[in-house]
Amino acid sequence: MTDKVLGVILGGGQGSRLSPLTQTRSKPAVPIAGKYRLVDIPISNCLNSGIHRMFVLTQFNSASLNKHIKNTYHFSHFSTAFVDILAAEQTVQNSGWFQGTADAVRQCMHHIVSHEFDYILILSGDQLYQMDFKDMIEKHIEANAEITIATIPVTAKDATDFGILKADEENMITSFIEKPKTGLDEWISDTGEEMQSEGRNFLASMGIYVFNRQYLINILNENEEEKDFGKEILPRAIEQSRVLSYQYEGYWTDIGNISSFFEANLGLTDELPKFNMFDSNHTIFTRARMLPPSKISGTTLEKTIIAEGCIIQASRVEHAVLGIRSRIGKHTVITNAYIMGSDRYQTLEEIRSETDAGHSLIGIGDRCYINNAIIDKNCSIGNDVKINGGPHLEDGDFELYAVKDGIVVIKKGAVLPSGTVI
After folding, report:
1. Beta strands in 51-155 (DSSP E)
2. Cβ atoms of residues 81 and 75 within 8 Å
3. What is the pLDDT of residues 222-257, one digit of tens each?
4. Can you tell me whether residue 10 is helix, strand or coil?
5. How far is CA 53 from CA 58, 96, 300, in A?
6. How far apart are the C-alpha atoms of 219 and 225, rounded to whole Å?
7. What is d(CA 384, CA 200) in angstroms, rounded to the nearest whole number?
8. Which of 56, 117, 321, 325 has the fewest CB atoms within 10 Å, i.e. is most exposed?
9. 224: enclosing H helix or E strand
10. Which InterPro entries match (predicted)?
11. How many C-beta neighbours within 10 Å does residue 236 have?
C-alpha cells in the first residue's frame, strides 16, 4: 500500500455549524477525546492501513492544524513516509480560494502528481471511525473499478442528510441523489439482514473515495466548472464509469454540528463504546506530550475519560471527558460535559498574583456546577459558577459562550467571573 496509494485529507471549509469551536481553528484541528484532534483519526486510519504518504489540504483558520501536524507526524530519514500540508495558494493559473472538495484537489494536483502512486484515497478531516482501507482498495482493484465510494447503511430519518446511492448485484453504483427529501422508497437497497433488521435500508456516501490516478486527473480536467465531488463529479461519473460501492458496517459519525460532536465525545465514556480507543490494531496517533500523570483527590468518578496532566479535586465527575491539563477545584460537580483542558500550566507566581487580584485561574474553580456543556481550551472559570445546559435554554451566540441545541459552549480562552450563572 505504501507504494501504490497516496492519501489526501480534506481540511474542510469554514465549519460554521461547529462554531464557536471553529472560530479560531479549522474543523480538523478541533480537540476530540481529551487528547487528540479530529485530523488524527483519518491520518491514523491511513497509517494503520499501511498508507504512509498523505497530504492535508487546508484553507480556513489553518495555523493550529499546521502546527499540530508539524509537531506530530515525524518519520525516519530513511522512510518515504510523510504527512504534508497543502494550503490554498494563489498561482498564475488560479487566484482564488478552494471552491469545494473537487476544486481543492484540482488546485493541488500539480503537487500531488509529482509523487508516484496508482490510487488516490480521498478522505474527510472531520469524521470519527476506524476503517481498514487495505480491504477497500483491494475490492476496488478486484472489481476493476475507476472509483470506489465507501458507503454506510442508514435509516430513513438519517437518509435526508446524506448523498444516497443505489447499486446493482455487483455493487456497482447505478444512481445517486443528494439529500433526498421525498420519494425515499425508491432508494431502498439490500443492505443485508443485520442492517435491515435495524431499519438501515439506505446506502449513504461516507465521503471516502478511491480513484485511479489517471482517471482522477482526467475527470478533474474535463470540466473545471465542477467544484464538488458529492454534488457534481460523482453523479456524472456514475453515468459514465465503473463506480463501486464499498459497504462499511462499523461505527462512523460525521462531526457536522455541536450536538453530534458532543454526543460522539460523551459516547466514548460508555462501558462498551462504539468507537474503541483501546484497540491495538487501530491505534490513534497524536502528538507525544511529556505531561505528568493526572492527580485526583477526593473525587467520585463515573463514566469519565481523563487525559494526562490533570489536577482534579472535584467532588463528583460523571459522564464527562476531561482533556489535557484540566484543573478542577474542590466541591465542584461536573456531569455530561467535555472539558477540553488547556495548553499550559500557570506558574505558582502567576497563580499567586491572579488570586491576589481576584481573577479567575485557568481551569474550573471551587463549588462550581457544570452540566450539558463544552468548555473550550484555556478557559478561566471562577468559583461558584453554575452552567446548566438543556432544552430550557434558547440557542444564541454571546460574548463568552454560545448555546446550540441546549448545549452551552464556553468559548476558547473565555474568563467567567466567580458567581456567573448560565
Report:
1. 53-58, 82-87, 119-124, 127-129, 147-154
2. yes
3. 877 777 787 788 888 888 899 999 999 899 998 879
4. strand
5. 16, 27, 44
6. 11
7. 46
8. 117
9. none
10. ADP-Glc_PPase, ADP_Glu_pyroP_CS, NTP_transferase_dom, Nucleotide-diphossugar_trans, Trimer_LpxA-like_sf
11. 14
- Output the CA torsion sign for 275, 277, 279, 281: positive
- Distance in angstroms (rounded) separating the CA atoms of residues 91 and 109: 13
Name the nearest CA neighbour of 113 among 258, 9, 216, 237: 216
pLDDT confidence tier of residue 60, bands split at 50, 70 and 90: low
CA distances from 179 to 12, 156, 168, 173 (A): 19, 11, 21, 17
Burial of 293-304, coded b for 16+ CB within 10 Å and e otherwise, reads: ebebeebeeebb
Distance CA 383, CA 401 (A): 17
Q: What are the cell numbers at 150?
A: 465507501
Tell me the sheet residues that pair with 83: 54
Start-end of H helices in 127-232: 133-142, 156-159, 193-197, 213-222
Using alpha carbons only, give the angle 160, 161, 165 rounded to the nearest 5 degrees. Answer: 70
CA-nearest of 118, 103, 105, 58 to 85 is 58
As to burial, measured by CB atoms within 10 angstroms (0-12 exposed, 13-18 middle, 19+ buried), residue 132 is: middle
Q: Grid coordinates in use for 58? A: 487546508
Instruction: Give me the phi and psi of 369, to 5 degrees please.
Output: -130, 120
